Amino acid sequence: MWHDSKALLTRRAHPLAPDENLPDDAARYEQRRGRVYLGRDLDLARSSTIGSTSLIGARASVGAHSVVSQSVFAPDVRVGKGCKVTGCYLFAGAVVEDDCVLEDVVVGEGARVGKGSVVTAGSLIGRGAKVGSGATLGGVRVSSVDSGEQVEVDAGASRELLLAGLRLDGS
User: Fold this and answer.
1) Which residues contact residue 16 at a Cβ distance below 8 angstroms, ignoring those fewer than 6 apart?
2) So what's the pLDDT on residue 34?
3) Between the CA of residue 138 and those of 26, 52, 63, 151, 171, what are the distances in Å?
4) How far apart are CA 137 and CA 90, in angstroms?
5) Three-class DSSP labels, the chain
6) Within 10 Å of residue 28's Cβ, how many Cβ atoms?
7) Phi, psi angles (nearest 5°) of residue 100
8) Is the pLDDT score of 117 beyond 70?
9) What is the rounded CA–CA span in Å between residue 26 and residue 28?
10) Residue-wise over 104-128: b if at least 16 C-beta within 10 A, else e?
11) 51: exposed, middle or buried (C-beta count within 10 Å: 0-12, 13-18, 19+)?
């Protein structure tokens, strides 16, 4: 998936590019130096850094001292203060609380990653799932058996956890 997005963000899929105007003449993204694409109505802290080959969707916010690189954010994503997000996809309405580290992770629509969590190694946080504060996860998939129910994974979560509608699978 990253290779497809990288081709678009590096403009190798010409004529497709995020900053190209669509038929209704409304620009969706503005291209900045370093292959950074920014949507409309963003709330980016002055001390935040958006690194190369990244796309930040409309109405997203990135907190103070946070660093984002090689990542794609859908609209309405919220990233707190002091976070590091690298090589990630965050779907619409995803929330990453303060002081988190995400590397090579997909965070589903409306999912939440709690304060101080570290999620790495190709993990997938499913739609509406909640990773509790201080959790450390690597190479796992967190999802809900009942997609309408919100679930939470706490700091002590193990790879074999199966409790009350929560499925945490190793990849």
Assistant:
1) 8
2) 83
3) 40, 24, 24, 18, 9
4) 17
5) CHHHHHHHHCCCCCCCCCCCCCCCCCCCCEEECCCEEECCCCEECCCCEECCCEEECCCCEECCCCEEECCEECCCCEECCCCEEECCEECCCCEECCCCEEECCEECCCCEECCCCEEECCCEECCCEEECCCCEEECEEEEECCCCCCEEECCCCCCCCEECCEEEEEC
6) 16
7) -100, 155
8) yes
9) 6
10) bbbbbebbbbbbbbbbbeebbbbbb
11) middle
Written as six digits, the tokens of 123 are 């993990």
Nearest of 43, 34, 24 to residue 81 by alpha carbon: 43
Asked if residue 63 has pLDDT above 70, the reply is: yes
**Predicted local confidence at residue 27, as pLDDT:** 57
- Which tokens hold the place of 3? 């290779």
126/144: higher pLDDT: 126
pLDDT range class, residue 160, cuts 50, 70, 90: very low
pLDDT of residue 122: 85
What pLDDT does residue 32 have? 86
